[in-house]
Structures are given as structure tokens and as C-alpha cells.
Amino acid sequence: MSAIDPSVSIELTGRARRRRLVRKRFLRRPFAVAGLVVALAFIVVAIFAPVVAPYAPDASDFSQILAKPSPEHLLGTDELGRDVFSRIVWGSRASIQAGVFATLLAMAIAVPIGLAAGYYRGWIDPVIARLTDVMLAFPFLIIAVALAAILGPSLRNATIALAIGAAPALIRISRGEALSLREEDYVRAAIANGASDVRILRRHVLPNMLSTLIVQATVTIPAAIIGEAVLSFLGLGVQSPATSWGVMLSDAKDYLGEAPRLAFYPGMAIFLCSLSFNLLGDGLRDVLDPRTTR
Amino acid sequence: MGGFLLSKLGAALVVLVISSMLVFLGVRALPGDPATALGAENRDPAVMAAVRSKYGLDDPLPIQYLHWAGLAVRGDLGTDQRELSVAETIVDRIPITLELAGLSILIGALIGLPAGIIAAYRRGKPEDYAATTGALVGLSVPHFWLGLMMISLFAVHLDWLPAGGYVPFSEDPAANLQHMLMPAIVLGTGLSAVLMRQMRSSMLGSLSADYVRTARAKGLPERTVVLKHALRNSLITVTTVLGLQLGALISGAVITEQIFVIPGFGRLTIDAINQRDYTLLQGVVLVAAAGYVVVNLTVDVMYSVLNPRIRVSSKPA
What we know:
heterodimer, A: mainly alpha, MetI-like fold, 12 helices, B: mainly alpha, 14 helices, 78% helix
């Protein structure tokens, strides 16, 4: 690919123009922008939790048990006198970690498999189709519960279970994309030019399914965040005294009568966090969908 | 048509066999020796050996699998740690979860389908924004948290509904529904968000289809055009989605039953894990997977009956 090749420079300006168009269209959607801002805020809080949180997550103050919200304790304290706001800040780490890493892991598993099935067809396609059917036949929570029982409960294992749960749907999507992209003229041209399969997949197929994958990733993250909360709530994820929003809900369920706010705040955190990613994903879908950009 | 059904049935059988192998192997991979659990405190090697041979634990794995699968096909899933028939326990628990699932689907459909139809029909109007935003909120709410909040409000503070538990319908229908109302709302609202989105997008497709234009051109009343012509076609896709949602519904039932202390199939799963009851766990997961496969096969067949284009265009895989 030499610098004077005219087709290359045209392709680059086209891509740059498309990028500018996408940005403009995205900024015109207030909900999507709000989703992006809030999602980024959650990520920043998770990274800088030690700076943001006024107290350590496990610092108990036994003179302040089940205290109401006050200037010292913004959201009050829990049954062990721990600051609820600080625990929510620290808990965001588990949620963001599970959400992002489970999604990345699921992508790393699903995309190559989906590509192989959709691009090569042949015997491999039906085999992979049946295997995804098998994976889908097990309700996600049952897989996760079983995995936690086999591997032992921890955030890492919960993340693995969430990734396995998310993989089949992503396999189907990337297979479908690869299936339609392999019929495109530029792929046929590359084949005629004698490009290797790896090169075709890397340079022509994968970049063209990127927008679909980005949208899918953005909507898989909130599902994984809720999944982490469910697993930790059932005692199969983050283990007390370490904190996560699911652990907080699990602790709070015994105090629904005296202090329902203990259950309210972590739930709101899960809700706002997954809502922000869902809003972002919906906005990206509208903006990146090639059918609407042309 | 026959070939199509046969290939679908074949695929379902393959999925079922592989699933059963996975269940079998997965359960073997769990830590802890079942012989220790079954022999209780008695660690005498002779007792352990007797237990192993009684339960066939000393056979090679493929033999154990074939033996287990052979019995499972005949409806014998073995006995659990309390020497109770696993099949009978599951059969006892399933109606409870089916009732919960049925009520949830009812609630989900009652909210989701009309909302989807209205949103599609009034595309870009305030009704559409309200419905799509509502669905997005529904997808983002952790439903078990919604359950906790409802218990806190309606059971603890207002004392309108029981916080949890289960009363069989045959004993006291009113109390049964009172106990089921909150769990069904919790599960149903999540489903309604998914159904609304699906209904909206397939209604948008059928509302712009040629046969709808033809129906309007014929001068049919708008009501008939939307509710008969467009809706009927959209419902086909929505049914398929409902079949695929079964897995999510079972997952949802596991946590909902845990929160509302309902002794259904989901709670049985968690109990089986906590008690390391291999035979029970094996049976539970196998039945869940088989249920999923059967429901989706039924949906596929119904789909092809309702939509002749599928039968004609699909070649046996």
C-alpha cells in the first residue's frame, strides 16, 4: 500500500467524513450523550474510588449503626455502621469490572467463532450453530450458578460465567454479519486478488462489522452489570467483606422494614449505571446503523 | 414440510443429547465426592466401596453416562440424598414455576404488546417516546431489586400483600394469587420491555408492507388494517422471541423464587447446589435444558405452520 495510491487517500477521506458525520449525528441525541456522560462518570468513579469515597468500604463505626443520611454520611450508614455512599463508590469497581471484562471476554470467544462459521460455512457452520443452541438451552443463571459451584465463588469466576452466558448471542450476531459481508464485492475482489483468508477477515470483514460489535458490546455491558449483582446477591460473586452492589443488596434484604434505603441506594446505582449504557447503546445503534447513515 | 420438520427434530435431538452429556460431565466436575456425601459420617472404606458400587460410581464415565441417560429417557432420574425420587420432586415443583411463568407472560404480554403496537403506529410521536423510554427503563432495572422494593413497600410498610411464601391454588385460590402477584409483576415487567421492543420493530415492518397498503387501498377501516392484517403477521415473530425468552424466564424464576421464598423449580436448583446433591442437580439442569429445546422446537414448528415461506425456502440443514 504505497502513499501515492489514489484509491487509498479517497478511502481515508471517506472514512474521516463518515466519522465526522457519526459524531454530529450522535451529538444531536441528548439521551445518548447523557448516557455517555453518566457511563463515563461511573467508570471514572470506579477507577478513582479511593479518592472519591470519604471512608474505606469496610470501616465500621459502631456508634453510627443504621444512621440516617447526614452531612458526615451522605447516604447514611448500614447495620455495621459502614458509610453507604463509600460502599457504593467502592462497589462500582466490581460492577464496572464485571460489566466490561465479561463483555470483552465474551467478544474474544464469540467473534472468532462467529467469523469462522459465517465466513467458511461448510461443515463448521452447522456444528457451531448446534453448539450455540446447546449453550442457549441452559438458562444463563443455571450455568453461572453451576460454574460458581465448580470454580468457587469470586468476582473473577462470576465474570467468566457472565462471559460464557453472553457468548452465544454474540456468536449468532457475528456469524450473521460475516455471512452477509462475504458476499460483498470488495471481499470477492480481495479473494480474486489472492488475499489470504486471515487478511480478508482482518482487513475487510472485521472492520466492517465493527459498528455492529460496538453496539452489541454497549448493550452487553449493562446485562453483565445486572448479572454480577444477581450473582453477588446469591452469594456466588463478590464475597463479603469486599463490597459490590449485589453484596449490599444481599445484606440489606434483612433490613427492609427498618431501613429500606439500604436496599434502595445500591439498586438505584445498578439501575442508573445500566440505564446509561443502554441509552448509549441505543444512541450508537441509531447513529452507526449503515441503513440510516446512507 | 415433512423434511423440514424432520431436520428440525433431528437438530433438537442433537442439541438434547449434547446438553445431557454436558450436564453429566459438568456435575462430575463439581468438587466433592458424592460417595462421601452419601456415606455421611461413615468413612469406612468398605462402606464407601459399597456406596460406590450401589450408585455405579466405580464404572467408567461413558458407561455411567449411558446408564444414566437410559434411565432418564424412561423418566427415572434417580434418587436424591434423602432417597426421594428426583423425577417426582421435579414434577412436584414444576407446576409452581409454570404458574409463575404463565402469570408473568400474561402480565408481560398485557403491557408489552399494546405498548409496542401503539409505539409503532404512532412512530416518532410522544406515545412512541414514552413507550421506548419505558422499555429502556424496564431493561435497565435489576428485577430482583424491584422485588425487594415491592416487598418493602407493599408487604412491610403497607401490609397489603404477603412478603413471600406459597399457597397451592387448589387449597386457597385467592391466597395463591395474592402470593403470586408481586413475583409475577417483577418477572412480567422485565419481559414486557423485551416484548414491547420486538412488537414495535416487527409492527413497523408490517405497517410498511405492501399488503397493508393494499388493505388500506381497499378502503378497509384503519382498525381492521392494523389489528388484523399488520398485527397478525407481527405476532408470528413475537412468538419466536417468547420461545427464546424461556431461558431468561427460568433464570428470572431462580432469583425471584429466592426472594419471595417460593418453593418452585428455581429454588430447587439453588438448593441442589447448596446441598451438593448431584443427582438432583443433574435432573434439574437436564429438565431445564430439555424444556428449552422442546419449547423452541414447538415454536419453530408453529412458525413454519403460520408462515409458509419458511417451509418452502429452507433447505434441510
